[in-house]
Amino acid sequence: MVTLKSRAEIEETRKAGRIVAAFHQAVSDLIVPGVTTLDIEAFALRFLKEKGAKAAIVGNRIGDVMHAVQSHAEQHGFSVVRDLLGHGIGREMHEEPNYPHVGRPGRGFRLKEGMVMTIEPMINAGTAVMTVDADGWTARTADGSLSAQYEHTIAITADGPIILTTMSHPANSLF
């Protein structure tokens, strides 16, 4: 069952998201990744803001959002892992609904005001196929290509989607 959040609950999630974003910002100044990985990470964040989240409006379907993510990645020569899922988030870390980061326009559940969910695709420079190590956690590309995953939490509101896990001000709006 999808749990819709009130404006107050969304605001609390936004506060938590800002803390996470501030941490990411501070840590990013300390870490110097390989150039190719940095390019992939920058790409993942850019397409989330420019493509995927913009389709996350009341009345659209999850397939509209994930098709935007998938299409943008593939147009730039990347692939999107099909085995990992986005999910609702709120009172619990992983809530309904669950959905892949690929999709077809007009398919899947309709987005409703008050939904809070993740967009967290794993973008690969090679194949979309992944393997999981014996530890049950470490994911790798099947072909050994480079990969990046970046997660944001978004709220579906009547005024449009809001990325809750960014430091942008004043309202973290995409528009």
Automatic annotation (TrEMBL):
Entry keywords, A to Z: Aminopeptidase, Hydrolase, Protease
GO cellular component: cytosol
GO function term, MF aspect, one: metalloaminopeptidase activity
Keyword Protease part of the UniProt annotation: yes
Residue ranges of domain Peptidase M24 in the record: 49-158
Classification via InterPro entries: Creatinase/aminopeptidase-like, Pept_M24, Pept_M24_MAP
A matching Pfam family: Peptidase_M24
Protein name per the record: Methionine aminopeptidase, type I
